[in-house]
Amino acid sequence: MKAIYKALALFQQECPPIHQSSQGYGYTYASLNSIFKVINPLLKKNGLGFTQLLNGEDLKTVIFHTESGEIIESSVHIQQNVSLAKMNTFQVLGSAISYYRRYSISAALGLITDSDIDACGIEIEVKAISEKNIPTPKRLTPAQVKVIPQAEDVNKLRTVLKLYTLQPNEKLMIDKRIAELTK
Predict the structure, then answer these.
(1) For 49, phi and psi rounded to 5 degrees?
(2) How far apart are CA 22 and CA 129, in angstroms?
């Protein structure tokens, strides 16, 4: 398994975050097309490939090293009997397959394909307010804000500032961290 892990590590060092390209119901996500456009040339360059196979109610993702034949496999169960507004059974299944393909390949390759506010050290708690679930922040500590190590995370911080009602000290910590990261 040495060759595939080395190739995967090289791929991960080269692969940039893949920004959201599609709009869902109140969120954005990286489409399969946008993911494939970024990863396919880098996979080829590093001697890697993948396939995603349906096996009953499961989706199996196989990453393979073209020279050694080594593989890494992952499976996920596709939830059945789900209903979504204005979609027939086949549309729901197609949507689920696309969803699982996107997240399965992203997880297997270690891709960054969404704005993960949790990953930047800021915890958001969802509470029911009036008719909607509106996110409200938990208290932030300086230690939580300090774990945001990279300049590309500045956009995550700016999103937090726009979307959430913060205490003055929390806003000050985030503003200070943005200033540090954009020097």
Answers:
(1) -150, 175
(2) 28
* Backbone angles phi and psi of 119, in degrees to 5: -70, -15
- Give the model's confidence band at 167: pLDDT under 50 very low, under 70 low, under 90 confident, else very high: low
Please state the domain extents for the chain: 2-109, 118-181
Do 52 and 35 form a contact (C-beta atoms < 8 A)? no
Q: In what order do the strands lie in the sheet with 58-65?
A: 48-55, 58-65, 71-77
The enclosing H or E element of 107 equals helix 89-109
Q: Token pair of 70, please?
A: 């080594």
The region of weakest confidence among 10-24, 29-43, 132-146, 160-174 is 132-146
CA-based Rg of the chain, rounded to a whole angstrom? 20
Q: Is the pTM of this model over 0.85?
A: no
Token pair for 176: 């200070």
**H helices present in the chain, as ranges:** 2-14, 32-45, 89-109, 142-146, 154-163, 168-181
Tell me: pLDDT of 125 over 90.
Answer: no
* Geometric angle at alpha carbon 81, from 78 and 82, rounded to 5°: 80
Average pLDDT over residues 88-105: 91
**47 and 7 Cβ atoms separated by less than 8 Å:** yes
Asked if 84 and 92 touch (Cβ cutoff 8 Å), the reply is yes
pLDDT of residue 87: 87
